[in-house]
Amino acid sequence: MDPILKINNLQTHFFTKAGILKAVDGVSFEIGAGEIVGLVGESGSGKSITGFSVMGLVDPPGKIIDGSINFKGQDLSALSNNQMQGFRGNRIAMIFQDPMMTLNPVLRIETQMIEAIQAHDGSISREDARIRSRDTLGLVGISSPDERLRAYPHQFSGGMRQRVSIAIAMLNRPDLIIADEPTTALDVTIQGQVISEMQKLCRETQTALLWITHDLAVVAGIADRVCVMYAGRIVEQGSVANIIANPMHPYTQGLMGSVPSQNRRGKPLQQINGMVPSMLNLPAGCAFQNRCNHANEKCSKIQPDITQLADRRQVRCFNVPAGQQV
Amino acid sequence: MKPILQVQNLSKDFIKSLDLVAKGLNRIGQSYKEEVVHAVDDVNFSIFKGEIVGVVGESGCGKSTLGRMVAGILSPSTGSVEFDSSQANNKEIPSALRTQMIFQDPFSSLNPRKRVIDIVTEAPIYHKLITPSEKRAFATEMLQRVGLDPDTLERYPHQFSGGQRQRVGIARALAVSPEFLVCDESIAALDVSIQAQIINLFVDLKDTYDLTYLFISHDIGVIEHISDRVIVMYLGRIVETAPIETFVKQPNHPYTQALLAGVPRLEVGKRQYEPISGEIPSPLSPPTGCHFHPRCKFATPRCKAEKPALREIAPAHFSACHLNDEA
Ligand SMILES: Nc1ncnc2c1ncn2[C@@H]1O[C@H](COP(=O)(O)OP(=O)(O)OP(=O)(O)O)[C@@H](O)[C@H]1O
Ligand SMILES: Nc1ncnc2c1ncn2[C@@H]1O[C@H](COP(=O)(O)OP(=O)(O)OP(=O)(O)O)[C@@H](O)[C@H]1O
Ligand code: SF4
Ligand code: SF4
Ligand SMILES: [Mg+2]
Ligand SMILES: [Mg+2]
């Protein structure tokens, strides 16, 4: 089956006074119907800009300069803003870390949800739209939805607001949801609720989901596949099971080693030394070289290409263990 | 053995004054009252020298309020925090300096107009622990202790990365030879790869300088890694304290169990979440009896009526749940 989203060699750059910043530099991945893909990486690695590029929300000085974003057979990167409008909130929806990016503080939840439905379907009656809104609130685990519909966002807790913004994303049964750090601001108990509802929704409605986060453990819990991003590039991708069991890129290995766990109590955490290089001033060769224990001459001269492995797995490093290449 | 720090019946109430909307509504005949938040509600615990005691709990449960009282920068409504001076490493250091606090946001806690050399030496010079002529040598040593290049002495905070700024904050705290550090979400703002560096630094410093910690974090993975003992808070109260092994393997309180079940873990991989239901109740009107009863799957009528006492159910293991009475 064809994937819902297929991104190929996406290049989104910011043309700043200080120089060209390649926020997204040759990113390729795909998401199938009902599949959950996690996009992980540290601050500034280009996760949000990847999501914004798909949504057509990159503003100047940023620009998609190359690559394609194929959504169900159509290249979104070639669409005008007006044409994109027809997809946003309808076929493709986005959930932000701060639910107030989605919610309007001065309107009742009901008004906002009905408007979101009617904006994409002029023929639906107000009453039908209200019923669908109520049902969708129920779907994301909000109790007494009839009552809640009449409320304003400030009458909700942070976790509930986030669930309302998820409900709004779900309203028009999109084919793709891009969720940018949707649980980062939530407590673990509430995060668990949100994750469990999203998993259920994707399975039941066959929605494709891109889950952006800096937390590898969250991705391990929710996603089918994972893309690890570093300095604008995906350095490793594959199924969650394969990558957790056997990370191959030195950065992925470092990330996994630095996640605290019970099993490693009493021992120092494996740390990645140094810090992320400035995106405006990346070295020639591999962007990870200054922190990598395996770096050699070649790494400082040439950018490593993608090595394709079995099980749709990819690694961008010269030192992929021998015998793994296909 | 005597604890180095003893906290007894410690409480802090905040009065939440009326906002403009409520004031307006009062004028047209409604009756909104000022509300009281019991941010920390009659808390008792002790910490032994050399321990790292973790504090966990959901947002708003009172972790920071507790930490600030322990650090002596917020005065309690009632109760006491006592430090046993006879166990101090450096008895000549003024008692006001013994406990230092390290915050989440290293940027807002550092004066942006001061150079690192001045940030680190300000308190020791003021308290006459060092003389101004020793300033440079002293600051150099402090930076080395936290893994910063002494070449950076003349820099301002904005010229550092987040992880480096947190190191500056730690150097400033260490500069007064504290006995006890209160870390409040001290690594939460850092990138994952940098978090590990700072956690390792905290552990090294503890061993080298014989420090004791109260370590507040919402990240249970971090707490499990670093703590010897854990305090679990819920709406201002301690619901469980346990040695780390017990906390991980045999948590007693239903809230602790639910909290642990929600923690994402690498080693578990993809899984079905079975989260606890319900929202965190408002601290302004906490549920009666056991605060946790609206979300607890074991709740009985007694739980709604009667507050469970924090009782020792096994050596060094305390829990506040009525279920323990039946066993
Ligand atoms: N408007 C802009 N102008 C210039 N550079 C920008 C702009 N927006 C983003 N960038 C840069 O693009 C890069 C990628 O940013 P992005 O927001 O995608 O990071 P991220 O991975 O989402 O990080 P975080 O985890 O902090 O959200 C960063 O280096 C950032 O500084
Ligand atoms: N200065 C203050 N005035 C009024 N209320 C306060 C004040 N400080 C804290 N509170 C209230 O006291 C309660 C406990 O707050 P506290 O900051 O200690 O929680 P916390 O556990 O640290 O939460 P978080 O995980 O979000 O940092 C909250 O309900 C909070 O709103
Ligand atoms: S290409 Fe070289 S520097 Fe880059 S991750 Fe691989 S070994 Fe390290
Ligand atoms: S006292 Fe009752 S409500 Fe509270 S945790 Fe125990 S069983 Fe649950
Ligand atoms: Mg982002
Ligand atoms: Mg706090």
List the main descriptive attributes of the protein structure presented here:
heterodimer, A: 326 residues, alpha/beta, Rossmann fold, eight-stranded mixed β-sheet, four-stranded antiparallel β-sheet, 11 helices, 12 strands, B: 327 residues, three-stranded antiparallel β-sheet, 30% helix, globular, binds adenosine-5'-triphosphate, binds iron/sulfur cluster, binds magnesium ion
CATH-defined topology of chain B: Rossmann fold
Helical content class of chain B = 25-40%
The total number of structural domains of chain A is: 2
What kind of sheet is the major sheet of chain B? 8 strands, mixed
How would you portray this structure in words?
- Chain A has 326 residues and is of the alpha/beta class.
- Chain A has 11 helices and 12 strands.
- Chain A has an 8-stranded mixed β-sheet with strand order 6-7-8-3-9-10-12-11, sandwiched between helices.
- The mean pLDDT of chain A is 90.
- Chain B is an alpha/beta fold and 327 residues long.
- Chain B has a single domain (5-243), classed as 3-Layer(aba) Sandwich (Rossmann fold), CATH 3.40.50.300.
- Chain B has 11 helices and 11 strands.
- In chain B, the strands form 2 sheets. An 8-stranded mixed β-sheet of chain B has the order 5-6-7-3-8-9-11-10, sandwiched between helices. A 3-stranded antiparallel β-sheet of chain B has the order 2-1-4, covered by helices on one side.
- In chain B, β8 (229-234) and β9 (237-243) form a beta hairpin.
- Classes of the chains: A alpha/beta (326), B alpha/beta (327).
- The interface between A and B is large, with 50 and 46 residues.
- One adenosine-5'-triphosphate binds next to β1, β2 and α1 of chain A.
Short description:
The complex is a heterodimer of chains A (326) and B (327). Chain A has 326 residues and is an alpha/beta fold.
Secondary structure topology:
The complex is a heterodimer of chains A (326) and B (327).
Chain A: E1 5-16, E2 19-31, E3 36-40, H1 47-55, E4 62-71, E5 74-75, H2 81-87, E6 92-95, H3 109-120, H4 126-139, H5 145-149, H6 158-170, E7 176-180, H7 188-205, E8 208-213, H8 216-222, E9 225-230, E10 233-239, H9 240-245, H10 250-257, H11 297-301, E11 307-309, E12 313-315
Parallel strand pairs in A: 3-8, 3-9, 6-7, 7-8
Antiparallel strand pairs in A: 1-2, 1-4, 4-5, 9-10, 10-12, 11-12
Chain B: E1 5-16, H1 20-27, E2 35-47, E3 52-56, H2 63-70, E4 78-83, E5 99-102, H3 116-126, H4 135-145, H5 162-174, E6 180-184, H6 192-209, E7 212-216, H7 220-226, E8 229-234, E9 237-243, H8 244-249, H9 254-261, H10 301-305, E10 311-314, E11 317-319, H11 323-326
Parallel strand pairs in B: 3-7, 3-8, 5-6, 6-7
Antiparallel strand pairs in B: 1-2, 1-4, 8-9, 9-11, 10-11
Helix pairs in contact in B: 3-4, 3-5
The complex binds adenosine-5'-triphosphate (2 copies), iron/sulfur cluster (2 copies) and magnesium ion (2 copies).
One iron/sulfur cluster is lined by residues 253-254, 290, 292-293, 296, 298-299, 303, 308, 321-323 of chain B.
